[in-house]
Amino acid sequence: MLFSSITFLFAFLPVVLLVYYISPRAIKNFVLMVFSLLFYAWGEPKYVFVMLASIIVGYVMGLLTDYYVNKEKIKAAKWMVALAVIINLGILFFFKYMGFFTDNINKIPHIHIKAVNLSLPLGISFYTFQILTYSVDVYRRTAKPQKNIINLATYITLFPQLIAGPIVRYETVAKQLEERRENVDDFGECVRRFVTGLGKKVLIANMAGEIFNTLSKLPKDQNTIVLSWICSIAFTLQIYFDFSGYSDMAIGLGRMFGFKFLENFNYPYISKSLTEFWRRWHISLSTWFRDYVYIPLGGNRKGTAKTYRNLFIVWFLTGFWHGASWNFMIWGLYYFVLLVIEKVWLLKKLEKWPKLLAHLYALFFINFGWVIFAYDKFGELKTAVRNMFGFGGLSLTNNYTVYILLSYGLFLLIAFVAATPYPRELAVKLIAKLEGKSKEEDAGDKSNINEESGKNNGVKNVERRGIAAGILEAVFLLFVLLMSTAFLASEAFNPFLYFRF
Amino acid sequence: MRNRITVTIFILYILVFAVGSIIAKDRIFSDMENRNLAQFPEVSAKSVFSGDFSDGFEEYMSDQIIFKDFLVKLKVTENKALNQTYVNSIYFADGRYIRDYKENTALIDKNVGFVNEFAEANPDFNITWLMVPNACYVYEDSMPSYADVDSQAATIGHIKDYVSDKIDFVDVSDELVSAKDDYIYYKTDHHWTMNGAYIGYKKLCEALGREPVEKDTYKIEVVRDDFLGTLYSDAPVFNADTDEIILYVNENNSYTVDYIDKGFKQDSLYNYEKLDIKDKYQVYLDGNHAIIRIRNNSYLDANKDNNKDDDSESNSIAEIDYEVSDNITSANRVIIVKDSYAHSLLPLLADNYEEIIVVDLRYYHEKTVSELAHEEGISDIIFINNVDFINSDDNFLWLM
Q1: Do B58 and A5 make contact, defined as CB atoms within 8 angstroms?
Q2: Which of A2, A100, A422, B285 could form a disulfide with A324 if both were Cys (CB 3.0 to 4.6 A apart)?
């Protein structure tokens, strides 16, 4: 099931919220697990069992690891972790990469092995990585083993982050699995996050996706250099708003059930270098690779040669994680090369460049990266790149190009602005002003907003201002909700981008 | 306070749609979208495990959501507000909807080829082909700037070059373009109005050498002014102008229309009941039919004394008696091979023939047109088509 669907919004969500909130504390995790399994099984009933197998392996191996660690039999504990990792990565490999390997091996002359082409279990890359954090965290003693398999299963299957991340580490939610509190202020924040995410996905990403879809399939006699750039920019916008929209929805939904996930995106397109971009893009994935691959490999502490080897491995895997296809590998290695160049030389220079130039540099290479990412067929990729750089035999522009600009210019402009932190900053300022708080007050009670606590004469005034801010926000949220519902009910273009992840 | 308002609004919003959609009665058909809506899917172990149930349920949810019509309008209105003038293959063009046109040259050549073969295989037939351009040609100037629409003028020119010289090809584009300030095409539907059809009728009569009935002979009635056509259904907005349904009624004549395929007869060229359904264009000759027979009873009165009604009514095509009456000369009978543009033109042409047999090749596959013509002893054949139709239809092979 997708968050961005009528079924989720008006059938699944109200039911799960209702049942969750009326359930006694003791069975809340169980309720969440059952609904999460239902959510997962909705489109793909068979693969629930694959996920359950992964969970059982993680659970048993976690207990065994802990047992041996406690007995200080570190070697045995290591074996247990290794086994957990091998089995879970094995499952991932089998479903996700077997087809790719058999296809490519069969391209070698005289070799014919039976091709395996399975459909990919939804979200398998996300939940496998989550189980791995559990196994490793238990071994590292950064988390206690989970004795209750329901709690562990709740963590893995938790529907908010199940199919498109963020990758939530066990240590982040270990405590919350056992004790968490849901309250109105938290719920208000979740609603804001969820609705914003929904709007990003349905109103911006899907429309950008429609532009990409139209323009990437344009016949040669209609295409132009300008259009091929608009096409790539549309994909750049689509993948950001889609992915970060999903993360926003996941974070918001997680919080509705009392879970606090870490941020996954932090305005990546305002970066002034690619190094910065990767600190802001899909943070849960890049920190996962840092903490569970790069650092265990020795990080940058074992000499220059090994540092670059480790970086190479990390970026190769990062690319390949996004899908079993050559273009994702190339995309990963593309960043390896660029990031090494920045690390060795360019980053220091970039700091001295005019800001605008550094932005343009970063955006250019980010955008080009997405072109590699977008096309899994070499022929299409080659054509797209040649078209963009004027080697495709296309004219610069034509009437259709002008028409596309007239039709989508306003939308693209809105999307550009929405990709920056300015709208949010403006909203925060406006709300703070309406609520009548000075900056100091605002900073002071950010962690604990409690308007009713004051008993001075200004209480009513503050409350009235609170209403004004509330109404303003309600109008905005209603607008986004209503427009999103309208687009979903009209069955407008609504793709799911992560079926290969 | 802000959080409370936000949470309340959110929960109310979800509940209104969730509960509202359950309470509201499921609709079978959407008038606005002009299509059947998904119903609650069948529940069985098999459908659940194959995923058919979940697919069906999602379709059901989005089709049966409360305020569906409002939501669809809201979506298209947003597209329009963002200056997106092209939605679902339709352009918003200066107060009217215009369907996109992309020439499918291969299909057009194939279709013209079938008509050519038909003409060449039947050298004794007199074949006339009326070609009607669509709104994208006539209202080219109203299209959004830089819109990428193929030229129907070029298509018609191409057909003219290719069509057999055994066929009298009639192009009514110029007459329609010069009358474009009149109300000749619907603003919300892909057809021409009866005013447009009258222009086509005159041009056709000219080619056939028959005298058209003068416009002031008719009682011209606006029978509805709330018509929202098929183009509107594909891209509904809140503030769309509605269309008028105009009928040209010649009160001097009486007609019998035999809807052979459905087995009923009416003594009017218009089925007024259809004015109350969504697709009001069906008022003209009851919309799409595989085969119908239009008799102009007054034509017989005027020309023959021994006119009598055919009493042998029957309900199935097989029993229909195609026997040619001796009283009707072949020259006063014609076979029309058409698409729905003809529906509003044929009520006019009915005055010029004793009998018109109308076939729609999309539905009429009982016999080929050659067989039908030979059985009926009719040698005058008129094709009436709009450009969009020959650019998209693949039923011309049923000619012979």
Answers
A1: yes
A2: A100
